[in-house]
Write a structure and sequence with these properties.
By secondary structure, the chain is an alpha+beta fold. It is built from 3 helices and 5 strands. It has a 5-stranded mixed sheet. It is elongated. The site of nickel (II) ion has 4 residues, from strand 2.
Amino acid sequence: MKAYLTREYIFSASHRLHADGLSDEQNSSVYGKCNNPHGHGHNYSLEVTVSGQVSPETGMVCNLVDLDEAVQHTVLQRFDHRNLNMLADFAALVPTTENLTEAIYNILKQSFHSAHLEKVRIEETSKNSFEYAGGETPCR
Ligand code: NI
């Protein structure tokens, strides 16, 4: 039996949305108040969904301890209470939550192997959420 497991994690980070390839006026027009030079913070809700066969022995898709450790060591320690603009991950990428979602998916794809990584979803605010499930991104 295949089952899906979704676990939520909370972290806080700040960012400023600013594209180096755009003029100051264009940045202001595209990103609005998110282009404020001082940046702003979010309490991000990160949902990680994995899937796999339910073990007949343990009754679980994977051990939550393993998932928690992977997320803690590879994602939360990297992004929690950080200024995303200062991180190498976003040296050449605008730290939008779209790009953050893809970065976290790629990190977990490499670091977590106890179950199949299906999807990463981030709620930036109560009105905005973003998902990435791998695959091509033809619009980039
Ligand atoms: Ni923001």
